[in-house]
Each structure stands twice: as structure tokens, then as C-alpha cells.
Design goal:
The protein is of the alpha+beta class. Helix content is about 40%, strand content about 20%. The protein has a three-stranded mixed β-sheet with strand order 3-4-5.
Length: about 110
């Protein structure tokens, strides 16, 4: 029985929230948590991050990232796209400037850049 795109999207959001929980973050689907909140994020629970989740085989990453950026602009938060194909691991796409900010604060950065 084929699954419609709305169901697949919800399943992807649940999968990503579960992955976040495995890593110690209390993330949940926006719709599941409190209905239509006005928050356009697909999932919530990572402070200062706008999460756009895509669970598709052929992702237009430019379009998905543009949506994440647009939806995050008025909130001054970092937009990311969490995405995966069937039988593949989750990937995170973000703007390079945001990645550098994250990296500078990480345990991997030795501040010698």
C-alpha cells in the first residue's frame, strides 16, 4: 500500500526526533507536541535551531534550504535541513557561515585558525 507524502513527512519527522533523542536531545514533532503553533519548524527542541525535515528520495536541497532560511529569518535562529533517503543515514545541511560558527565552538576546534 503506497504511503502519501504527508504520512511520509510525518514519519520522517518522528524518525529525526527519535535520532535526536538517541543523542540526548529532547526533540519532538511540532504538530505532535502542540498542534499549529505558528512555529514553522518541523521539529522543536534544539534551542536556536530551525529544523526542516525532508524524508525523500530526490531532494531539491536548494529549495529545502531556502524554505528553512525563509521560515527562520524572523526568529534569528540557525536554519538546518535534516534529510535522508531510504536505507541511508541522516544528513544535516546548513549554511557554511553557520557551520563555521558551530565548529569554532566545538571540541574539535583548537582555536589556531
Amino acid at each position: 500500500m503506497p504511503i502519501n507524502s504527508k504520512q511520509k513527512g510525518a514519519r520522517g519527522e518522528r524518525e529525526f526526533a527519535s535520532l535526536c533523542k538517541e543523542h540526548g536531545f529532547d526533540v519532538r514533532r511540532t504538530q505532535q507536541y502542540c498542534g499549529n503553533t505558528g512555529d514553522a519548524s518541523d521539529c522543536v527542541g534544539l534551542p536556536n535551531i530551525h529544523i526542516e525535515v525532508k524524508r525523500v528520495q530526490a531532494l531539491n536541497i536548494d529549495k529545502a534550504m531556502a524554505q528553512a532560511i525563509h521560515d527562520s529569518e524572523h526568529k534569528n535562529v540557525m536554519p538546518i535541513v535534516a534529510h535522508r533517503k531510504n536505507n541511508a543515514k541522516w544528513l544535516i545541511t546548513m549554511r557554511a557561515d553557520d557551520w563555521f560558527e558551530v565548529y569554532k565552538g566545538s571540541r574539535y576546534s583548537d582555536d589556531t585558525y
